[in-house]
Write a structure and sequence with these properties.
This protein is of the alpha+beta class. Helices cover 20% and strands 30% of the residues.
């Protein structure tokens, strides 16, 4: 799909790269995000990568819409080599009170809890985007057999640090919040630090995350 520009109100433009969640599309999005930041256009206030598009917020009094649109359509449409991406390891306690849905997920998939844990720890998860909550990473992708719909009745309070799955994706809740994903484990690694003004969210689109199973101690 050729990238095309869409208006998002009078203060943002969205550059779309595809119609599906896909690794190659994600690489194009993160490459474009890096390129826009490198341009340092006056008037750009935020750059927001998503699964398949990039939204650029701007001040129309400082940056004419036509100038920004021209800059976006002129971006090189090349895969991202992720030179600025980070690789993270998240120690995780799986099952029991830390992962109350592990047994149910194992039963629903016809696999043992141990195989679920091994699979989660074997996948180098790509961070597609940060959203829903500050620091909340949407990561993928899970194998087809491990893809389950969200819970019919969401929990009113999911503990911070919960490692969860839904559909083709995995995530870690950085804050206590309502949520309908399947909870498999818990990590003590903080994912958001508001005191860090340079990078409050630990993870960023394009990063790689690996879970490592540890015991509670």
């Amino acid at each position: 799909m050729e990238p095309h520009v869409l208006d998002l109100g009078d203060g943002a433009l969205t550059l779309e790269f595809g119609e599906e969640i896909d690794l190659a599309v994600s690489q194009r999005v993160t490459a474009a995000a890096a390129a826009v930041r490198k341009l340092a256009l006056p008037g750009v206030t935020d750059v927001v990568p998503t699964w398949r598009s990039l939204t650029v917020h701007f001040d129309p009094l400082r940056l004419p819409r036509e100038h920004l649109a021209a800059a976006l359509t002129a971006l090189p449409d090349a895969p991202d080599d992720d030179r600025t991406a980070s690789e993270w390891t998240l120690p995780t306690v799986f099952g029991g009170k830390h992962g109350p849905d592990l047994a149910a997920v194992a039963a629903a998939t016809g696999r043992g809890p141990g195989e679920i844990i091994e699979t989660m720890c074997a996948i180098p998860f790509r961070v597609f985007l940060i959203g829903f909550l500050p620091g909340f990473p949407y990561m993928g992708e899970l194998p087809t057999w491990l893809r389950l719909p969200r819970l019919v009745t969401p929990r009113t309070a999911v503990p911070a640090g919960s490692v969860a799955i839904a559909g083709a994706q995995a995530a870690v809740y950085p804050w206590q919040s309502p949520g309908g994903w399947h909870l498999l484990g818990h990590t003590a690694t903080p994912l958001f630090n508001p005191a860090d003004t340079a990078r409050p969210a630990l993870l960023a689109p394009g990063d790689t995350v690996r879970f490592v199973a540890v015991n509670h101690a």
